Every structure is written in structure tokens, then in C-alpha cells.
From TrEMBL:
Organism for this UniProt entry: Massilia forsythiae
Family under the similarity heading: Belongs to the Gfo/Idh/MocA family.
Name of the protein in its database record: Gfo/Idh/MocA family oxidoreductase
Entry's Gene Ontology molecular function annotations: nucleotide binding; oxidoreductase activity
The Gfo/Idh/MocA-like oxidoreductase N-terminal domain, residue ranges: 5-120
InterPro entries membership: Gfo/Idh/MocA-like_OxRdtase_N (IPR000683), Gfo/Idh/MocA_domain (IPR050984), GFO_IDH_MocA-like_dom (IPR055170), NAD(P)-bd_dom_sf (IPR036291)
Keyword Oxidoreductase in record: yes
UniProt keyword annotations, A-Z: Oxidoreductase
Length: 331
């Protein structure tokens, strides 16, 4: 095993660039290669960030000096790209949403397990110290038995209908792009989702431009979640119990502190936040890969599949469908 973990990045868009910047902040991470459908695009990327340039995804995953592959391509490409990397024997960290639906996700998990290769959904909030602190506070009993959570994530976009955010052919819509954040953290704190009720505002291209959903969790807890491409929301998360509540301050996916409020008063706890956020998932993926794990205990396969199923249910309720949802779609 090498001292450093050698990463390959599949894709050269904004998210891939953010991930490459994060690798700079992880001392034992190395960007070994970047794959694009265009060699010129890959070379432009590596001129800035380093690593070898590959003019195809196939060439990247076949490279012998790459340990883990980060999939940062558009949503509809995730399933095929993850399969490509796994079949080449590479561990994979796949950007959220993991796939377009649960049916696409299931065979990927099965393949990773069969080949004993690491596979994880790239959800950095699961590994933030702020979330760990919230869990510690809950476990201490300070806010009593928790039963309710609220979380939102929204920004305004003036992009045209051809942009990936609004194009159904590219898996557009608020839910898959940013709704997964409040959904995932709600499940992390209140447990598995047993039922969901959703409402959405559907835009002219047929995707959800804002969605709200109410979740009932195993054990009876309730959470209200919202996502929007029309409104700049606070992006906060509050978890409430019988004795008080704890809030992840600022935008919860970038929280640098949490505030606990009870009858005795309020106190704020500072929590580290590394780099641009992606650093947290990089550290976890490397830890798991080095230990020979197939999945992360913080973002296990079964939970990724369950949350994909919840988003499938939400989209059915609000009337958003993608080509991959067709009965004859191939996973």
C-alpha cells in the first residue's frame, strides 16, 4: 500500500474542480489522473490541478496508478460511470445524488459487494464534526428524547431551461440536486424514513423547482424538509427534544458551530470545518479504503438505497419523472 491515496477524477465540471481543490487540503491525498470525454478538457484540468490527463473515462479507470475514483459527472451518467470504475477494480466515491433512482443504484451496490470494492455516496455532511457534536448532545440526554427536526436548503437560480438544474434529461430539479441534503441528515438524526408526504412547484421544463416534504421516521419522529431553486433559504437545521433543541448554525452543510438551548439557557459549541467541505468525505473514503471496507459505516449502502427510494416516492407524488424511471430502463 502506498503512503498516499491516489485519486482519479471522472469529469471536469465545477464539482470536479471543487473536489480537486479539496484534495489539496488532505496531506495524504494525491490527484493522479483526470478523465474526460475530451483530451483537451482533461489537459486543461490537469494543467491547473496536476495529474495525468486521459481522453476517455475508460482510460482513466484502467490506469494502474489510481486507487480511488471520484465520479463527478452529471446525474444521469453516475450509474454507468460507477459501474465502469467498479468493473475496472477501482473503489468509488460517487457524487450525490448517487443515481437517478433506486433501480439504478441497487446493481451498483451488489457489484461493489461482489467484487469487495469500496463504494460510497459523496455526502460530506455525514462526516462533519458539527453532526458528530449534535449526535453527542443527543446521546447525553441534554435536550431529552428527540422527536422533531426541520431543515432546508435553497438558492435562487436564473439559469436557462437548458441548464442541468432545469433539464429533465440531466436529472434536473431541486430534490435530487439539493433536497438530498436535508433528507439525508434528517435520516441520520431521526432514523430510517417510514413514510413521506410531499408537495412541489413544478417549473415549465417539468422538474421540481421547489419541494417540501414531511417525513415520519422509525420510532415516531417527524421531520419537515424543504429545497428550492426559487428561494434563498436560511439553510439551517434544528433538532428538538423534550427538554430543548440544538441548531446547526449558518448553512447546516457548512456548520462551524452548534447552539444548544434548554430551560437553563443557551450555549454554543465550536466545531471544525475543513476546506470546502469535500475534505471530510475524502478523509472518510481514504480511511475506509485503507481498512479494506466495502462501505462506510457513516454512509452505508443500505441507507443510500433507502434514501434513493424515498426520493423516488417524493417524485411520484409530485409528478416528476425521468427517462430512467421507465419500466424498461436498464440499470
Amino acid at each position: 500500500m502506498t503512503a498516499s491515496v491516489r485519486w482519479g477524477i471522472l469529469g471536469t465540471g465545477r464539482i470536479a474542480r471543487d473536489f480537486a481543490n479539496a484534495l489539496k487540503d488532505v496531506p495524504d491525498a494525491v490527484l493522479a489522473g483526470v478523465g474526460s470525454r475530451s483530451l483537451d478538457s482533461a489537459r486543461s484540468f490537469t494543467d491547473e490541478f496536476g495529474g495525468a490527463a486521459y481522453g476517455s473515462y475508460e482510460a482513466l479507470v484502467a490506469a494502474g496508478d489510481i486507487d480511488l475514483v471520484y465520479v463527478g459527472t452529471p446525474h444521469p451518467a453516475h450509474a454507468g460511470n460507477v459501474r465502469l470504475a467498479l468493473e475496472a477494480g477501482k473503489g468509488v466515491l460517487c457524487e450525490k445524488p448517487f443515481t437517478l433512482n433506486r433501480r439504478e443504484a441497487e446493481p451498483l451496490v451488489a457489484l461493489a459487494r461482489d467484487k469487495k470494492l469500496f463504494l460510497m455516496e459523496a455526502m460530506w455532511t455525514r462526516f462533519m464534526p458539527a453532526l458528530a457534536e449534535v449526535r453527542r448532545i443527543v446521546a447525553s440526554g441534554e435536550i431529552g428524547a428527540v422527536s422533531q427536526l426541520s431543515a432546508d436548503f435553497g438558492f435562487t437560480s436564473d439559469a436557462g431551461p437548458e441548464h442541468r438544474l432545469f433539464d429533465p434529461a440531466l436529472g434536473g430539479g431541486a430534490l435530487l440536486d439539493i433536497g438530498i441534503y436535508p433528507l439525508s441528515i434528517a435520516a441520520a438524526l431521526l432514523g430510517p424514513v417510514e413514510s413521506v408526504l410531499a408537495q412541489a412547484a413544478i417549473g415549465p421544463t417539468g422538474v421540481d423547482e421547489q419541494t417540501t416534504f414531511l417525513l415520519r421516521h422509525r420510532g415516531g419522529g417527524l421531520s419537515t424538509c424543504a429545497c428550492s431553486l426559487r428561494a434563498r433559504t436560511p439553510g439551517e437545521l434544528t433538532l428538538s427534544g423534550a427538554l430543548g433543541h440544538v441548531r446547526m448554525n449558518g448553512m447546516f452543510h457548512r456548520a462551524r458551530n452548534v447552539t444548544v438551548t434548554t430551560a437553563a439557557g443557551a450555549r454554543t459549541v465550536e466545531t471544525p470545518y475543513l476546506g470546502n467541505g469535500y475534505v471530510h468525505e475524502v478523509i472518510e473514503a481514504q480511511r475506509c479504503w485503507r481498512e479494506g471496507l466495502v462501505e462506510s459505516p457513516g454512509m452505508p449502502h443500505d441507507e443510500t438505497l433507502a434514501l434513493m427510494g424515498v426520493m423516488d416516492a417524493i417524485r411520484r407524488q409530485v409528478g416528476v419523472q425521468y427517462a430512467a424511471d421507465a419500466a424498461d430502463a436498464v440499470a
